[in-house]
Amino acid sequence: MKTFYLTDAGKVRDHNEDSVIIVSNDENNYLMAIADGMGGHSAGEVASSIAIGYLGKHFKETFRNMSKVDAVNWIRDAVNEINSLIFQHEKEHPESKGMGTTLVMAVLTDKFLLFGNVGDSSGFVMKDGNLHKVTYDHTLVNLLVSAGELTKEEASVHPKKNVLMKALGASVEVDVDIFDCDMDISEILLSSDGLTGMLDREQIEKVLLGEGSVEDKVLKLVRKANNRGGTDNISVAYLVRFEEGEDK
């Protein structure tokens, strides 16, 4: 198992509101997560750090002997607790009112792989040399595409393409999407929309299938996103289960 993550402010924003983590526990289970914060006066940075800080500590302390059903409930409970913590922070710090964060996460054990998602950060898997997007973006334009009111091409240039329909801190109750994946995958990639807004799936896949270490590929993705404008914070978390020539 090889992992690496990186977050970068990009070329336009004056500070970085993303937070990232990859952590394992003593059962060799892995948690990967990216939170993309929003809100003025650095409040987005606070919201994303609340999410990632809680997840990492909670995973280390409580993720033990989990069945798949237990893990699904663990993800739901963790997301709801993060949402409550964000609202509590807003109550105690009125200047941070309106802050929130997206959250995408993956939990990998030797028996199952689960993704959780709220917002427009993305989760991908590599299977048989093809990169597949697992998560669904909770954006206005994605909703319109699903309803047949926009094409994917129209959505990509729509003036409201970044309008979110879901985020942590946006409402008292939050419904996290949970995806159950086949275990026959070689790699997991999470990214904030700062990457997927600059590179399409095929461009990301080409980098991951190319030469270089796990670290090299993450650095290359961030560099390419910046070279194409870097209009948002860019975060990538990458896990390789099986390298070329390694037994599964």
- Beta strands, count: 11
Number of helices: 7
| CATH architecture heading | 4-Layer Sandwich
Rg result: 17 Å
Structural class, please?
A: alpha+beta
> Number of domains in the coordinates?
1
User: Based on CA inertia axes, which overall geometry fits?
Assistant: globular
CATH class: Alpha Beta
- What's the pLDDT, averaged over the residues? 92
Biggest sheet features? 6 strands, antiparallel
The amount of beta strand, in percent, is: 25-35%
Summary, kept brief:
The chain is 34% helix and 26% strand.
Verbal overview:
- This protein has 248 residues and is of the alpha+beta class.
- The chain has one domain (2-240): Phosphatase 2c, domain 1 (4-Layer Sandwich).
- Helix content is 34%, strand content 26%.
- The protein contains seven helices and eleven strands.
- The chain has helices spanning 43-62, 68-92, 140-146, 152-156, 193-196, 201-209, 214-227; strands at residues 2-8, 18-24, 30-38, 100-101, 103-108, 113-118, 122-127, 130-133, 177-181, 187-191, 234-240.
- The strands form two sheets. Strands 2, 3, 4, 5, 6 and 9 form a six-stranded antiparallel beta sheet that branches. Strands 1-11-10-7-8 form a five-stranded antiparallel beta sheet.
- α1 runs antiparallel to α2 (68-92).
